[in-house]
Amino acid sequence: MEDPLPGYEGKLRELLESKGARVGCRIRITRFGGREIIEGLLMPKHAFSSPYVVVLKLDNGYNIGVEVREDTSIEVLECRTPPKAMRIKLAPRPELPYVKVIGTGGTIASKVEYETGAVKPSMSPEDLVELIPELMDVANIDSEVLFNILSENMTPYHWQVLAERIAKLITNESFKGFVVAHGTDTMSYTAAALAFALQKLPCPIVLVGAQRSSDRPSTDAALNFLSAVLTAVHAPFGEVVVCMHATPSDTLSLVHRGVKVRKMHSSRRDAFQSINDLPLAKVDPISKKFEIINKRFIPRASKDELVVKPKFDDRVALIKAYPGFQAEIIDMLVDRGFHGIVIEGTGLGHIAENVIPSIKRAIESGVAVVMTTQTLFGRINMNVYTTGRKLLQVGVIPGEDMLPEVAYVKLSWVLAQTRDLNEVKRMMLHNYVNEINYVHTLELYPRWIEL
Amino acid sequence: MEDPLPGYEGKLRELLESKGARVGCRIRITRFGGREIIEGLLMPKHAFSSPYVVVLKLDNGYNIGVEVREDTSIEVLECRTPPKAMRIKLAPRPELPYVKVIGTGGTIASKVEYETGAVKPSMSPEDLVELIPELMDVANIDSEVLFNILSENMTPYHWQVLAERIAKLITNESFKGFVVAHGTDTMSYTAAALAFALQKLPCPIVLVGAQRSSDRPSTDAALNFLSAVLTAVHAPFGEVVVCMHATPSDTLSLVHRGVKVRKMHSSRRDAFQSINDLPLAKVDPISKKFEIINKRFIPRASKDELVVKPKFDDRVALIKAYPGFQAEIIDMLVDRGFHGIVIEGTGLGHIAENVIPSIKRAIESGVAVVMTTQTLFGRINMNVYTTGRKLLQVGVIPGEDMLPEVAYVKLSWVLAQTRDLNEVKRMMLHNYVNEINYVHTLELYPRWIEL
Predict the structure, then answer these.
(1) Residues B256, B288 within the same domain
(2) Shortest Cα distance, chain B CAs vs residue A153, angstroms
(3) What is the pLDDT of residues A337-381, one digit of tens each?
(4) Residue ranges with strand state E in A311-443
(5) Of B280, B308, B336, at which residue does a domain stop?
(6) Across the strands, what pairs with B55?
């Protein structure tokens, strides 16, 4: 049997044992003579916390450490035995389309094992239907777990494996669409990577995540996931998209073009927003309504048109311009054999003039240098000011209105195909999957404050 | 006499001369048998353009190159002689407050010399009043040009010179407020730098710029400048702020806290927006109305309270996390003797786990490492996920809700005062000038799209 109180030691452990507490129990801690009362689920402790601290998962989903003092009392409110999952084998419903769900990790479609406190992927069709019963009426789900990693640990290598797996499934099977469950930290990078790696898609590839894990009352996992499956089934486009909460309330999801979306908030459920483009669609998961917002989409292609170019060059850096930027950083990257550098410049695409000699040397050494802007919104225009013109003269490739992160992914993808700088420039300026939007309308800029 | 057609050569020059054209003339170019007509001011050419190209400044302010072909006709519409500036010496009006204007460069309060096409600073009180006659009724203007550089070329050294100059003026003279004319590319960095360098201010320091140069019909220079002077006079706060267009129309300016503002668009006039905080005030320059929006401001201090700490460490780097981030970049910075690194991490403050050993080594070598988030909005919270906790364990300093750029400026400022990592941590977490906002309300997040 596993330790019911992992990480707890000494007097605190004795106290918890005397109350019959184990990890997963709901407990109440009372301190300061009743002036502070904290309730939550008892969680395992990691090795570095103080021996006097109890770790609780609060109802808002956050874990906190509570110090147990002389005047602290602990009460066990409930020790649920986790319900045995219904292991009903779902029978396929031939009238419904098939959707493939691929797990890569992250907080969506995961379960906390109350025995260990660990968050484990829970991606079987049965698990998903248990979490979201509405799925049964939308599609037949087929699922697999490809990775189980935190999204901050995704690399260009994972992009390739994922792209190759989906390419194989597209070629050999007949899914109406794909849903990729992904951690939100780097979801937009993976979306852009898949968009370049897999073109002329016969069906949408919908990345979906959750900002709050599915064991939290405020979880957005179910709504996002149902919306993603609805998109996989109903979307007329063959694009890689991100499907996430539109607003903080549980009413609507937005489907963003994978090469035009960015995580814009560290914690809100509506963190993902389109930049320099309209979202492609909105989805009402309650009424199961899917509606196109942006008519400039790439329609589903036929299966045999699929273009697969799944490789990425991992010797590309994304660096940021700032006052005092040290030109030696460029020199170091060149000397270390980097193949490409994307600069997140200022304004219309600038960096300090004293950096230009190092950029010139980089390009002369065969390193591709692409300019984007840290304003995120808007387009670069390197013809307006002297600095921009000088950068163009030494061979910097202007990144149009591409997000710095998308330009990074695209340059990694381009450099895996060619190192010829003329060809690199041609490909960076070629618009493959609407990663460049040539027409910006006023409503693409957010309304920042009620005036 | 200067060349009237600088950069123009050969047949094209002969053609222009035969029409009596010189730089500054308004000309009309007709091509494709009349199907394309372009009008604009003839501009000088730089050395790298094709010999067949005429450079025009369009009415929208952009310069374009137009190729002159066989079927192209050129017509000179007008060759104005630039009006002689009225050299009226302004008499001070003793009933009005004194405002000090400091020029650093950028497109605000500059004139295009039509003889050379160069944009020159034009910052004398007379120039300013000529541009914005309304100023005469608001304040007595005293002005000086401290630098004349493009803002992408600003460095921490310039921040110091500017801070020391303002400190001296505050100590020795009695201005109601300061207006600093600044290029927009790095204006928010300079605002943050001044905010840390000059605390307990007896008056506001208002940075102002223009997204369109003052020779363009769509210039925002006059409105922004008048709003900035109104702020300098009327603001109850002693803070460093940025005053810029609130909307694309010429009706309202917003005053943003210097440590909570960011240029969010490469070209729009309302590019500057507050992030994670409300703007401090709004200004209607037409009715000359100044109104506080955010009551959490730092009031004007008395003159003798001024705290001057104008130094910055220029061995600090701001780097960005991305999938495939190469840990060797951290190693290189440490080996090159950098003193501090600000990471623009993902989500709640993460970077790939395989980078942690290099971060650990950096901190063990005495390099301060601060975590922020590339989502810009929201706060980091490194206690939620394993990666964050591991980063905290090796000594990464959590950057709260500070913008990556502000954390970069602050760390440069802190490291100029101490290299002791415990003290660096204490200072980075200390809230000096409301660079940390502990309470985020829902309305701080923009409304992205009309649903």
Answers:
(1) yes
(2) 5
(3) 999 999 999 999 999 999 999 999 999 999 999 999 999 999 999
(4) 316-320, 340-345, 368-373, 397-398
(5) B308
(6) B65
